[in-house]
Amino acid sequence: MDSSEQTRNFFLALLENSTDLLSIIDAQGNYQFVGGSVKHILGFTPDELVGKSAFDFIHPEDKENARTFLQKAASTKVLVIPIFRFTNKQGNWRWVETTLTNMVKDAAIQGYVTNTRDVTERVEEEQRKKKSQAHYESLFYNHPDAVFELDREGFMRKINKRMPSITGYTEEEILGSHFRKFVHNDYLPVAMDAFLNALGGIAQHIEIAVLKPTGELVDLNIAIVPVLLEGHIESIQCIANDITLLRKYDTFLKERSEQLNSIMERIPESFYALDTNWRFTYVNSFFTAYTKLTREELLGHSIWELFPNTLGSKFHHNCLKVIKTGLPANFDEQYSEDKDATISYHIFPTGKGVGVHFVDITEKKRELDKLEKLSLVASKTTTCVMLMNSELQIEWVNEAFEKLTQFSLEDCLHKYPWDLLTGPETQARTLTKIQKQISRGKPFRGEILNYKKSGEKVWFNLEITPVHNNLGRMVKFIAIRTDITEKKIKEAELVHVTQDLFQQNHDLQQFSYMVSHNLRAPAANVLGLTEILLVMDKHARMFDETLRKLNQSVATLDQVIRDMNHILTIRDNSYAQNRDYVNITQVCEEVLESLQEKLYYIPHTISADLDEKIEVWSNRAYMYEIFRNLLSNAIKFRKPNEVLKLEIRMKRQKNGVTILVKDNGIGMDVHAVENDIFKLYMKFHKAYEGRGIGLFLVKTYVNALGGSIKVKSEPAIGTTFKIKLKGNAK
Amino acid sequence: MQNSVYIIDDDEVSLYLTSMVFELYAPHMQCICFDNAIQALESLQNSMITDTVPDLILLDLNMPVMSGFGFLDAVKTLPLEDKGAVFVLTSSVSEQDKQQVYETGQVVDLIQKPFSMEKLEMVLELIARK
C-alpha cells in the first residue's frame, strides 16, 4: 500500500468512527460525499445518501430554514445551522446540529463540508426542561390560590395575580416588601417560626391572619415549601388559601356545637346517642346521674351489655326498628320490676346510629292514673266536684255538677267559679273567707249560696282543698259541693218557726201577765170592797157609795173577761187566715160613714189620699177594726177648741201597702210612753173615756195580718200612725 | 202634827177602797190620793219645803205615763230621811215584780191588793218599829 492509499484509508477509518457525520454537499444540497460514521449515526450507508439531496431527509417544517442557511453559507466561511430534524434509516426523526464550512473554492473539495452531530438527547432534555418550567410558571401564576415566593431574607420576590385580591395590597406594594408587613401581630411568631423551618428545609402548613390595608382580617392557610436548587435552599414558595369564611363557619359550628352541648347537659331529661354497634357515643349529665354510671363507664360501651335487662324490651325492639326504617319512634314503656316505673321514650335516627331522649314519667303517670281513677269516681258521684288550676280557673266539673247547676263543662272551662255561681245574695263574707284560706294554702269548709244557670238559688256545703306539688307549690284546687238547699230551707223554716214560737211565747207571757194583772185588779177591789161592806154600817153615808164601787168593779171584771175573749179571737190565726182581696179605700170610707154621727157635731176636715184601686190580700173585718180604732181615737183625742184635721194616706209598696193616719189632736209624749203605747189597758189621758184597749187591738190586728205599726206623736201637735201591711196588692 | 198618807193609784176604785180602810181603822191619818205618779211626785217635792212630808206612801206599780218604778226612781235622790216610808200596794201577784221591787231597796214592803185592816195594822207596826 502506497502512502497516499494509506492516508486515504486512515481518513476513511477516521470518518467511519467519528461521532460526527462528515459529508460534502454541493450548493443545491446534494450529497457529494458522506463519511462512514453515517452508518452508526443514522443507519444509512454512505452510498444510500451520495447523489441524493440532503433536503429530502430533513423534516418538512425545518426544510425551509435549512435552505436559507445553505444560501447564507455561500457568502460566509463557517455557519452553524441550529437544530433541525433529520430522518434516520428507521424513519425516525433525529434532532441534529450542523456546521457548514464553505470550501467551494477549494479545488480538492469544491462544495460545502457539513459536520452534523445527533443532538436528539440534548434537545429532548431541553424540551423537557422547558416544559417543566412552563408547568411551574403556570402553577405559580395561574394558581387559584395566592402564591408567592420569598427570598432567603423573607422579602417578596414573586407573587401571582391572586395575591393582591386576597391581601388587598397592590402588586407594587407587595413585591420587595418583607412578609412581616402583612402578617397580623398575633400571628408573627407562628409565621417567623414557619419561615425559619422552611429555611431549614422543612415544608409545613400554617394558619395565620393577614391585616388588609382596610383593617379587615383575612384568615389564610399557607403551605410553605422550601425551593431546593442543587442541595441549596434558593427560595421559599408559599401557597396561601383564604379560609376566612371557612374559619367563620368553623367558629360558628363550634359555638353551635358548644351551645347544643350545653343545652344537652342542662336539660333535666336524659339524652344519649348510640352508634350502629349500639355503643354510647354521647351521654348527657342527666343520663349519667340517672344511671349512676360515669361518662367513662358508658362511652364506647354497648348499651345491651351495660343494661342486659333492656334486651327484648319494647325499647330494644324500637331501637332496631328506628335503625331499620330510619323513622323516629315515640312510646311509653312500663318496667314492672322497678316499682312500676314508666319511661317515655323518643328515639330518632342520627345517620350514625340513634339518639335517645327519655323522661321518667312514673310520678306523672301515677298521678295521672290516680286522677283517672278519681275522676271516674268523681264523675259518677252525686256530689258536685270541680277541679281548678292554681289560678282558680275551672279545669273540670263532674256530671253531677253539670246536672245540678245546669252549667255544662264547656260553660265552666277556664272560668272563675265566682263569675258563674255567685249572685246578689251570696254572702261577701263567705267569699272573703274562702279567698283568705286559699291564699294561705289552707282548705276551706263552709256553706255558700250559689246560683244555678237559671238563676235559681242553691245552697252548698263547700269544701275547697288545695293540692300541692312536691315543691310545696299550689297547683290545683278541688272543690266539693253538696246540695244542702233543702236542709237550708228547713233550717230557715225552723228559724222562722222558732222566732214565731218565741214571739208567741213572749206574747203569751205578756198576755198572761196582763190577764193576771187586769183580772186581779178588779177582783182585788171586789174582795176589798166586800170586806169593808161586811163591817160597815148599812146605813152609813159611805155604804151605798162602796156598794156602787163594788158594782163598778164587778162590771170591770166582766169587761176584762169579754176583752180577753175578743183578743184571743183576733189572735186565733185561723180567723186571720180568712182572707180576700180587700179594697182598703172602700173599708176606710165605710168606717168614716159609721163615724158620721160623732163627726156631725165636730168641726173637721178630712183629707184622704186614697187609691180606689188598691186591693190587698187581707182580712176585711180586721182592716175595718184597725181604721175604726184609729179614727175613733183621732176623734176622741182631738183638741177641744180647734178644727179636727184628719189625714189618711195610702201608698202601694213593693210588697204590700202603707197606710198613714194623721191627726192634729192633743198628742202624747212618745218618749215617755213609748213602751206602753200599744199595751193593754194603758190609758194616757185620764180625762177621757175608754179602757185603754183600742191601740192594743189595732196592734193585735196588724200583727195578725203580718204587718207592723209605728207611731209618731207630740203633745199639742198631733199623732201619726203608720201601718205597713204585707201582702199582694193589686 | 197629823200623820199623812199618800195613796198613788190610777185605779179609781182601788183609791177609794184604800182610803176607806184608813177612814175606818186609822181615822187619825190623813189620806191624800193621787191617780197618777207625776202629781204625787210634785206634791212630795212641795211637802219637803212645807215640811209636810207624809209618814207613809202607798204606791201602785202598774200606772201609765209614770209607773211605780218610775216614781221610785224619781224619789231616789230626795232626802226623805225617816219619813215617807214607801209601801208598794199592787194587784200583781207576779214574783218578777216582787223581786224587782225589793231590788230597788227603797221599799219597806210589798202589799198585795186589796188593802185591808190586817194589812193596815202590819204597815203601822212596821213604821213604828223603824
TrEMBL record, chain A:
Domain PAS: residue ranges: 7-77, 132-186, 256-307
Any single Pfam family the record assigns to this protein: PAS_4
Enzyme class label: transferase
Organism: Pontibacter arcticus
Domain named Histidine kinase: residues: 514-729
Keyword hit for Nuclease: no
Ranges for domain PAC: 442-496
Its EC number(s): 2.7.13.3
Protein name, entry field: histidine kinase
Keyword flag Ribosomal protein: no
GO MF term list: phosphorelay sensor kinase activity
Domain of life: Bacteria
Catalyzed reactions: ATP + protein L-histidine = ADP + protein N-phospho-L-histidine
Automatic annotation (TrEMBL), chain B:
Domain annotation Response regulatory: ranges: 4-128
Top-level taxon in the UniProt lineage: Bacteria
Coiled-coil regions, chain positions: none
Pfam families: Response_reg
Stored SUPFAM superfamilies: CheY-like
A biological process term (GO) from this entry: phosphorelay signal transduction system
Residues recorded as bearing 4-aspartylphosphate in the entry: 60
Keywords: Phosphoprotein
Gene3D superfamilies hit by this protein: 3.40.50.2300
Protein known as: Response regulator
